[in-house]
Amino acid sequence: MARVDPKAVLEGRIPGRPPIALVLGLLGCSLCAVIALGIDALYGGSGFWMGLVLAFLPIPLLVALVLALDRMEPEPPRTLLLSFMWGAGVAVLGALVLNTLGMLYITVPIFGEGKGHFVSATFGAPLIEETLKGAALFGLLWFRRNEIDGFVDGIIYAALVGLGFAMMENVTYYMRAYEEGGAQQLQAVFVLRGLIAPLSHPLFTSMTGLGVAYAATHRRGQWAAPLLGLAAAMVLHGLWNGSTTLGAGGLLVVYALDFCLLLTLLVVVWVERRHNVHRIEAYLPMYASTGLVTPQDVRMLRTIPTRRAARRWARLVGGHAAARAMGDYQLAATELALLHKRAERGVAEPRWFVQRRDALLDLMALARQTFLRVPQQRPSPPPWAPPGLSGFSQPPDRPYRG
Q1: Do 121 and 229 sit in the same domain of this protein?
Q2: Which residue range(s) make up the domain with 374?
Q3: What is the pLDDT of residues 315-360, one digit of tens each?
Q4: Whole-structure pTM over 0.85, yes or no?
Q5: CA distance 136 to 233
Q6: Hey, is 4 helix, strand or coil?
Q7: Where are the transmembrane segments (predicted)?
Q8: Residues 303 and 238 placed together within one structural domain of the fold
Q9: Cβ–Cβ under 8 Å, residues 189 and 53
């Protein structure tokens, strides 16, 4: 078997080719973030550093919660990082410039000082900010369409873009709160933006993510679905910003709307995970003749706990390298089922389907060989199968040859 690069296979890129475009994108996004922070520091005074710390404080937990939704088929870490940095860099800096210019030359001259700020916040800012955040998702749809396997992927990428944007925006809000009302007002703003409603921007942008995910996995709606998702994101954002003028009642309605939206997205994640499990059960048995999968191995792949138990067993058998190989096998098998989902919906080009399928099978074979080469007696059979009934416990009658 030819040498296999597991990371390249799972990310769907050519082995041995460094992701130059992604690295340049990260550098550009980081530069934009530094410029935006520099502007805040220039005009923020003593509240800048306090605002920066408070804005960053909940981000690790929020990112972890978002990524927990995608444990069965995690997205490439570098692409996730680029999404977050796009929100924190390009989207924030672009929104800062365009929102400021819009108020100076359009809304305030036309509507006056007070009403102009309201129009800018309710109509201008949602249009500009959701377009800039959504540009990252449209870029994924254009350049990395095959990386988006379903609605969960669209939600994950959108949420990370939104979290990056919210983090940088909160620096400004906390900074201003400290300057205008001291520690007491800063505390109130942090509770509202950092604790009670930290997911507002991710929820808004998730509408665009749903539209982009639909376009990536269906033959119809290639333009309509992403544009409808973007429009929904703008409407929700506008309602949120406009509710500030409606008092406590308006805020209560918007908070309730966001909560219902969050529950809806969680249901979408749960339903899609169930469908993916059914696809694993439906498609992987057809590869039993390769020796890479048995009915017991399919059952192991069905749930997060059984996958975790398999990785623990692998670490017991062969250390960290074996645990990593088991993780590669699990991800490759899941990607194989999702590949058939694309073919089922008619969005997988035949030649690419064959190449991708063979690469995933090669990776599964490489991972399996890691266990079959372990010379010592195993301390126990695989926990998901009796001895001899898993591809990881004995050589197949007809071994797979890539």
Answers
A1: yes
A2: 259-402
A3: 888 888 888 999 999 999 999 999 999 999 989 899 999 999 999 9
A4: yes
A5: 14
A6: coil
A7: 20-42, 48-69, 81-106, 118-143, 155-175, 195-216, 223-240, 252-271
A8: no
A9: no
